[in-house]
UniProtKB/TrEMBL annotation:
<dbReference type="InterPro" id="IPR009078">
    <property type="entry name" value="Ferritin-like_SF"/>
</dbReference>
<protein>
    <submittedName>
        <fullName>Hydroxylase</fullName>
    </submittedName>
</protein>
<dbReference type="Pfam" id="PF13794">
    <property type="entry name" value="MiaE_2"/>
</dbReference>
<dbReference type="InterPro" id="IPR012347">
    <property type="entry name" value="Ferritin-like"/>
</dbReference>
<feature type="domain" description="Ferritin-like">
    <location>
        <begin position="10"/>
        <end position="192"/>
    </location>
</feature>
<dbReference type="InterPro" id="IPR059125">
    <property type="entry name" value="Ferritin_actino"/>
</dbReference>
Amino acid sequence: MEQTAFDDPAYRAAAVDLLGVLAYGELTAFERIAEDAKLAPTLNDKAELAALATTEFGHFRQLRDRLVALGVDPMEAMRPFVTPLDAFHDHTAPSDWLEGLVKAYVGDGLANDFYREIASFVDAETRALVLEVFADSGQAEFVVDRVRAAIEEDPKLGGRLALWGRRLVGEALSQAQRIAADRDSLAALLAGSVDRPGLDLAAIGRMFTRLTEAHTARMTALGLQA
């Protein structure tokens, strides 16, 4: 029988952790976007957000099904990440519709970029799933359009939303660092092994440069200063 990466217990634990954190992240994204829809100023905005929420739930189902195919209980795989992700969302609860949009685009975008980086170190099938889940589902265009229109109507919003975006990036980085520190399997995935090279200090520096540049690009797209 041909061996796969999942025959390595350390690798299996890391891949399951990655799928578990992503699954819970998508489940909470569905909940948050559905909740944000209640604040939508128009019926069209409400419908757009409902469609995005449905897409997030579809992503959750894909990740859940992948865990089941690996013989893993999805609820158990998600459980270690409930507390840190819930804490992140508690600390970054938006005060209005626009803050909710910026959070979905900027805060979630940075976290997703981080997990895409980790996906570089997993098997091809898992990596393809992660990249599919994080492909733009129309959220970017919708958020950019609404936020830029609001700032054009009231330029003073730009300063407040820029500060909010900076707060989100700080919280998102802290969240990612906490999860990586608490889950030895994910840290080991980044560090590599004898047959799977990981990141050295220079590569880690380049990774954070990419994360920062992507964040700056998102803020610029919204018409905000990073």
